[in-house]
Design brief:
Elements: H1 5-30, H2 43-65, H3 70-83, E1 86-91, E2 97-102, E3 108-111, H4 114-136
Antiparallel strand pairs: 1-2, 2-3
Length: 137
């Protein structure tokens, strides 16, 4: 009797499948199944992530178009009140905001330094996050 290579291959494949099924059924019977890893995020962390995302969108809109919507106007007004002068924003790049002071006549008097602009951007982020947090309640 002649046994060809494909017949031996088929026998080995079937035997391997039976071994795999046997191991799988043993794991199910003994309860040693491995559950997939799960990540759970606390409600506070989810809230913080949402606040950060909304705040970054608000700041991006202020940088691109100026404060036009209610929350944008509210945030920018708080920043102006804290700074003590009327401000305007221009953008050099999507991440850099340049703040300028406006005088009583409505004319731009001078641009603030890079350090002052970075400080005001940081302050704008803080005020925006605080305002978004209060509005979410």
């Amino acid at each position: 009797m002649v046994i060809s290579a494909y017949q031996v291959n088929n026998v080995l494949r079937v035997y391997g499948n039976q071994l795999r099924q046997s191991r799988f059924s043993k794991m199910l019977n003994t309860g040693n199944t491995r559950l997939p890893d799960m990540i759970s995020i606390s409600a506070g962390a989810k809230r913080k992530a949402i606040i950060d995302k909304v705040a970054s969108n608000v700041i991006e809109k202020i940088g691109q178009y100026g404060p036009h919507e209610d929350i944008e106007k509210e945030v920018f007004q708080k920043l102006e009140d804290e700074y003590g002068a009327q401000l305007t924003i221009s953008t050099e790049s999507p991440t850099d905001l340049i703040f300028k002071v406006i005088d009583e006549n409505g004319e731009t008097t001078n641009s603030l330094s890079i350090e002052d602009s970075k400080f005001l951007r940081h302050k704008l982020e803080e005020i925006t996050k605080d305002t978004v947090n209060k509005n979410m309640m």
